[in-house]
Amino acid sequence: MKRVVVTGVLSVLACIVRPAPAAADVTAFFGVSPSPSTRTTQGVAIGVGLIVVGFEFEYGKTKQDDLKGAPGLTTGMGNLMVMTPTQKVQLYATTGGGMFHEIYRTRGTTNFGTNVGGGVKLGLAGPIRLRLDYRVFKLNGDPLFTKVQRFYGGLSLSF
Predict the structure, then answer these.
(1) How far apart are CA 6 and CA 16, in angstroms?
(2) 79 vs 34, 64, 149, CA distance in Å?
(3) For a surface tag, which of 2, 28, 59, 90 has the fewest beta carbons within 10 Å of its beta carbon?
(4) Which helix H or strand E contains 18, and what residues bound it?
(5) pLDDT of res. 21
(6) What secondary structure does DSSP assign to 73-114, as a single string?
(7) How far is 31 from 99, CA to CA, in rounded Å?
(8) pTM here?
(9) CA end-to-end span of the chain, whole Å?
């Protein structure tokens, strides 16, 4: 009899208690990379979140500055995110890795890189949020600069 009651209670709980649905978003961003000189950067990030853990793929491109000796940098990174389970103001920390391509004049290098950072997503109206982000990239291989920073702001659409 005890087994029937336990099975019944667990069955009812399984029908009532469901995991929260996954939330996805896409962000178009624009920002700056201040090292070794201030250059513009732009890109897109696509992510999915499951309450406090999320995954994201981001593509970013930083312009080359020949006059100041600053290379261009293209990154494609997959990231793990840990975020607050809130809607209006959502803080997050992220870390990940992927490929990069650095180019300066006729010199180019492609290799693996990692990144760590964090930011905030601020609810604006409905599914539209403002995203502010800071990242530090560590570039492996033989790039001109092994540590690169990036600050960006963007509009994020949740769905």
Answers:
(1) 15
(2) 22, 25, 16
(3) 2
(4) none
(5) 61
(6) EEEEEEEEEEE-S-SSEEEEEEEEEEEEEEEETTEEEEEEEE
(7) 20
(8) 0.85
(9) 46
Assess whether pLDDT exceeds 90 at residue 23.
Answer: no
Using the predicted structure, report yes or no on whether residue 19 has a pLDDT greater than 60: no
Distance in angstroms (rounded) separating the CA atoms of residues 110 and 108: 7
Which residue from 73, 76, 53, 55 is spatially nearest to 64, judged by alpha carbons? 73
Confidence band (pLDDT; 50, 70, 90) for 126? Answer: very high
Q: Which residue, among 129, 115, 112, 125, has the nearest Cα to 29 in the 3D structure?
A: 129
Exposure string over 46-68, b if 16+ CB within 10 A, otherwise e: ebebeeeebbbebebebebbeee
Q: Which tokens hold the place of 93?
A: 């920390």
pLDDT for 46 equals 98
Spell out the domains of the chain, with CATH numbers in brackets.
Answer: 20-158 (2.40.160.20)
Kindly state the tokens that stand for 105.
Answer: 């004049």
